[in-house]
Amino acid sequence: MRRALVPLLLVLAMGPEAFAQHVLPAPTAPPERRSWFSRMNPFARERLPEYKDPRIRGLVFSLELSPQPIKLSEVRQMDVKVTLTNKSKRPVTLEFPDSQRIEIYLRNSNEEILTTWTDNHAFAQVLGTVLINPQERIDYAETIATRELLPNKVYIAEVFFPSYPELRIRQKFLTAP
Question: Domain extents for the chain?
Fold first, then answer.
């Protein structure tokens, strides 16, 4: 009976984070060193990305591509969903010179730009301001043409804010044969 309890207690002591897959931090950030206690602490704070521009501190950028893998015979456009979340305790104001907020590039594995999202869009020359309150987020759901993609290859989707070059995210994806 005791022999069965010891492994069970060890598994419970490690917690669910021991078996979870973690996203690696950005290459510019030093690797996070966490103690055993901080892994087990449910009140441990999430580490925010550090930007050089103090106006955008506290913002977290995420990218979601669908469907995966992309079947080019069935899909002519790929869905790109970008979420910008304010994890800080103060509001963040973003100012834009025109109505364009984001830019999307589809790149091949050699880093060459194949498709640009702004090629098919017109933007008014109107100043714009976006205010993101603490713990709120902004979602941008867009589509981009897949006509330049070939089957069974790896590509890179890159999304960024032209006015704020530090707010940039990239994700690799595969096209189906």
Answer: 49-174
- Cα 130 from Cα 97, distance rounded (Å): 12
Element (H, E) at 7: helix 2-14
Its pTM surpasses 0.85: no
Rounded Cα gap, residues 1 and 115, in angstroms:
63
Q: What is the spatial distance between Cα 170 and Cα 125, in angstroms, rounded to a whole number?
A: 28
How far apart are alpha carbons 160 and 103 in whole angstroms? 5
Q: Which CATH number is associated with domain 49-174?
A: 2.60.40.2360
Q: Give the pLDDT of the chain (177 residues) as one tens digit per residue.
A: 667 777 777 666 666 655 555 544 444 444 556 666 666 666 656 677 788 888 888 899 899 998 788 888 888 899 999 999 999 899 999 999 988 899 999 999 899 999 999 888 888 888 989 999 999 999 999 999 988 899 999 999 999 999 998 999 999 999 987
Nearest by Cα to 104 from 76, 77, 70, 130: 77
Residues sharing a CB contact under 8 Å with residue 55, sequence separation 6 or more, in sequence order: 92, 93, 94
- Order of all β-strands in the sheet with 137-145: 59-66, 77-86, 137-145
Grouping H, G, I as helix, E, B as strand and the rest as coil, residue 162 is coil
